[in-house]
Specification:
The chain is α/β, with parallel strands linked by helices and 714 residues long. Helix content is 51%, strand content 8%. β10 and β11 form a beta hairpin.
């Protein structure tokens, strides 16, 4: 009984509370309405809508303006109304859809997973109908990571990237030199003055820098000594400063200091100052590529405007500029190259951009003594002394008689008629013939297998003519990707000297022996991802000895990096396996010339080279590799007196294993094919195809078998 009474009281209380709340709410709403009406009657609320544009009128109640107003109305009525065509409306709608899709693609490229990002980037790069302001808007929305990913797309539009900050600001020469001077001082301080070349440069060019460490600084004139003249602050001094900065950035830890002290904006100012100086731009590209090993500074690269500049440089026709710029972008691409970096002297020649296919093989090129990536692997220059007219269009017999009856015909008619006769005979023969390759070998061993010919059809002839007209500065970079796109081509650069008299930097390393160099470059190649897939070595002269030394060292260490296991073949271009005559100097001459370590190691019948070659043959027993060797047969004209000298004899160039060919070229041109149909190139190409395509052929044949089986069943 008591519980029911308690529940009644609770019900009454709830009902009363609800009524009170509802009545109070109604009263509050009524009061708000009253306050609003009072405010509207006292304050005009339309003054708060100042941002809305309203039509304003002037009422003219004067009969003198009546005619004028009527004329205005008639003029307005005479203006034809524009009707929007259906096609224009569809095009406007399609562009709007494209623009909206562009921003969605950008969002996906920034926040999607790896596959989504790649697809969005390719689609974004191929989007059309974008105006300049669309590109500017997208550039402002880009982050550093996405900007680098877009920068590595093939044929990317430069409008995707903002101009560097303060791009229109003009700097005075004195101010630029002062800024790079302060930068060099700070770099010397950070390395604790351990770089003697930098200290010497600052002392020589800016005498007041280390005056406290110089003795008799102010008393030179009293002692009768001449004081060095003041250095003029001109463009030459600025160029010298850039060279000093490039030299300082060669070591990885020193290049990091440049970014730490804010050197990237200073380099951009110098780039603006030397916009049209290709040599300074090459130095700047090398500095940037050295700093790019430290991807943690990606945001600083982006803020300083270097991403767009690197894209512009990577599209330059001069490979000396495009190669380091492309290497810098590859190092900064955190999406594609997570565990792969290209250190100094390691050049990525292909692919320079993102590719959708999979890389199946690495091809590594090493030059020889006094060579370089962009010197050794050039296309051979045309020998104009041997050029002449061969098999010219001759006029067949009897045409002169016909032409004498046609007085109104010009001599051009006879040439055209002769050409038509020749073409008719050519068509009757057909295209079932072959042409001997350029640089066909004069002699070869029993293991040689060609190819020695190429097809003579119209397609090959057109390619041959195209290669003659479009010469390449680096045939591994331009030819191999066209024939086998699934390759990664890498070039190695290293400095060599003929004499110890040549000055060298103490911090640049003393890796002059083959054993020291091989250890250095194995480390760099591992950083570039070598050893993870099949590979082929291509080497000229001393480069072949370095390759043998690297493989032997890895073999002795148990091949922990799988370099020997994954090596499929080696191509030697005039490699002196038993030494070279270039090091055959008498003791008296050696005292004067003071030959370098590289030259001393190339002595004929050197015990070290003979031992190296024997170990190489022993290594091949455990890790079989295809070996192809070329030997020069012509002497090389050296010095200004054109003295003939054969650097490598056939006996020294023959390793005694694999295929061996003697080519009628000298030491410098043995590695420079005349065209893509040169035997020197086609033999290398056939080796690479042999090791790349077997899996594809087996897979293709199995698919064809399934297709034929399905046809039989159904």
């Amino acid at each position: 009984m008591g519980i029911q009474t308690y529940r009644k009281y609770i019900y009454y209380l709830k009902s009363t509370g609800i009524c009170i709340v509802m009545m109070g709410g109604c009263w509050v709403l009524y009061q708000l309405r009253q306050i609003t009406q009072i405010l509207q009657s006292t304050v005009p609320t339309n003054v708060l809508n100042l941002e809305h544009a309203h039509a304003q009128y002037i009422y003219v109640d004067d009969p003198r303006f009546k005619d004028i107003l009527n004329k205005t109305e008639s003029l307005q009525s005479s203006v034809p109304k524009q009707h929007v065509a259906f096609s224009d409306a569809i095009m406007k709608w399609w562009k709007a859809v494209n623009h909206n899709m562009t921003y969605k693609l950008l969002h996906m490229a920034q926040h999607g997973n790896e596959s989504e990002r790649l697809r969005a980037l390719y689609t974004l790069n191929s989007t059309k109908h974008l105006k300049d302001w669309h590109y500017q808007h997208i550039a402002q929305m880009l982050d550093a990571r996405t900007a680098v990913s877009i920068a590595r797309l093939p044929n990317v539009d430069l409008r995707f990237f903002l101009k560097p900050p303060y791009s229109h600001t003009k700097h005075k020469l004195h101010d630029v030199i002062e800024r790079i001077h302060q930068l060099l001082l700070e770099l010397s301080r950070l390395c604790e003055h351990t770089h003697p070349c930098l200290i010497q440069f600052l002392n020589k060019k800016f005498k007041d820098t280390y005056s406290d460490s110089m003795i008799l600084d102010h008393d030179l004139t009293s002692l009768g000594l001449v004081v060095a003249p003041d250095v003029v602050w001109d463009q030459e001094l600025l160029q010298n400063c850039v060279q000093a900065l490039c030299h300082h950035s060669c070591l990885e830890e020193y290049s990091k200091d440049i970014a730490d002290v804010g050197g990237l904006p200073v380099l951009m100012i110098i780039k603006k100052f030397f916009q049209n100086n290709i040599n300074i731009c090459i130095l700047l590209a090398k500095i940037i590529s050295n700093i790019s090993l430290h991807s943690e500074y990606l945001e600083q690269f982006f803020q300083a405007g270097w991403i767009g500049t690197l894209v512009e440089w990577s599209q330059n026709s001069d490979i000396r500029l495009s190669a380091p710029a492309s290497r810098a972008l590859a190092n900064l691409d955190m999406d594609e190259n997570k565990d792969v970096k290209y250190p100094r002297r390691i050049y990525l020649l292909h692919p320079l951009n993102k590719i959708r296919g999979k890389i199946k093989m690495d091809v590594v090129f090493l030059h020889g003594l006094l060579g370089g990536v962009f010197v050794t692997w050039r296309q051979r220059d045309i020998d104009t002394s041997t050029l002449g007219v061969v098999d010219s269009y001759t006029i067949p017999d009897g045409i002169e008689t016909v032409a004498s009856l046609m007085d109104d015909q010009s001599p051009e008619f006879l040439k055209d008629l002769a050409y038509d006769f020749r073409k008719h005979e050519w068509d009757k023969i057909g295209q079932d013939f072959e042409i001997i390759l350029d640089d066909c070998p004069q002699n070869s061993n029993a293991k040689s297998s060609g190819p020695f010919f190429h097809k003579g059809n119209d397609i090959c002839t057109k390619k041959y003519e195209y290669d003659k007209q479009h010469r390449t500065q680096c045939w591994p970079k331009d030819w191999l990707p066209k024939d086998i796109p699934s390759l990664r081509v890498i070039g190695i650069n290293y400095d060599t000297n003929l004499s110890m008299w040549t000055p060298s930097c103490p911090i640049d390393g003393i890796q002059t022996t083959m054993n020291e160099r091989s250890a250095e470059y194995v480390k760099k190649l591992l950083t570039a991802g070598i050893g993870k897939r099949p590979m082929i070595w291509v080497c000229h002269s001393m480069g072949g000895l370095l390759v043998k030394q690297m493989l032997i060292n890895e073999w002795k260490n148990g091949d922990k990096n799988n370099i020997c296991k994954n090596t499929r073949g080696i191509v030697f271009y005039s490699t002196p396996h038993r030494g070279s005559r270039v090091a055959a100097l008498k003791q008296t001459v050696q005292m004067l010339v003071w030959p370098s370590v590289e030259v001393q190691e190339l002595r004929e019948e050197s015990p070290h080279l003979l031992e190296l070659h024997q170990e190489f043959l022993d290594m091949l027993k455990q890790f079989p590799m295809e070996v192809v060797s070329f030997s020069e047969t012509k002497s090389t004209l050296i010095t200004a007196l054109k003295v003939p000298f054969q650097f490598v004899t056939s006996n020294s160039a023959d390793p005694g294993i694999g295929e061996f060919y003697e080519i009628a070229q000298d030491h410098l041109s043995i590695c420079k094919p005349a065209s893509r149909y040169s035997f020197l190139y086609q033999k290398l190409l056939s080796m690479i195809k042999h090791h790349v395509t077997p899996h594809e052929e087996n897979k293709f044949s199995s698919i064809m078998e399934l297709v034929s089986l399905s046809k039989r069943l159904f």
